[in-house]
# Entry
Amino acid sequence: MRLRSLVRTLSLVALGLAPALSAQQRPAPTPTKAPAKTPAKAPTTRTTRQATKAAPAKAAPAPALPAPVPVTHFASLRWRWVGPARGGRVTTVTGVDQEPHTFYFGSTGGGVWKTTDAGALWVNVTDGEIDVGSIGAIDVANSDPNIVYVGTGSDGYRSNVSIGRGVWKSTDAGSTWRPAGLRDVGNIGALQIHPTNPDIAFVAAIGDPFRPTNARGVYRTVDGGARWDRVLAVSDSTGAVDVEFHPTDPSILYASMWRAERKPWTIISGAFEGGVYKSTDGGTTWRKLTKGLPDS
# Structure
């Protein structure tokens, strides 16, 4: 410890004496004689040195191209959030076959949003157009991407579920909307447009989330929404939560029927009368599928 303190003291003394010694070693200026180096040469020397230092940077070779990234490095990639910043849940999403970067989504309380650049920017397309924010289903016509149908009222029955206000339709890719019927069916779980005829569409109406009604079931339009006919119904408590076309034959359809009702103290979910139904004549008649499926 004493040796360390001594070394430290000597170091401090050396540092304190250094300026004085440096000043003593510096030659005194002579007023009658010019210094060996004139002041005019100093800027030239500094400029030359700066140019000499800058020259290697300009002559540096271009960096080599990076080696290709092995495909295995992409295995760790994960999905990331692309927006937009909004509250609530996304309840339905659909794309556009002819436009691979265009998508629509519907939320539980924020209406319909659209992107045309694969999610870099989302724009709400229903504010001031549709009088309800809860969206249950969206579909774009495969035969005409300007035609978009929206079914309102989310089928995700939680404590804060909002009731729907029917079907809305756009014929200009979401720029404007007009009512297209079924205003009193309650909430809509799915909506499908015929792959080659945009005037034909099906709606799966789960119904009023708060009480039994006789408006639940599967609906069909053949005139672009001017009129809807209920083609499948089970009861005033069991509605349709989904409807889908067969991928290669639009005369074949499948529908899922589900009993759901929201009470202040609980939620009713499921019943023996629900199940999966199939149509082979374009939705005119239906039969319940039972083979290989649970009874309840």
About this structure: The two ends are 85 Å apart (CA to CA). The longest strand covers residues 253-262. Residues 191 and 203 are 5 Å apart (CA to CA). The chain has a mean pLDDT of 82.
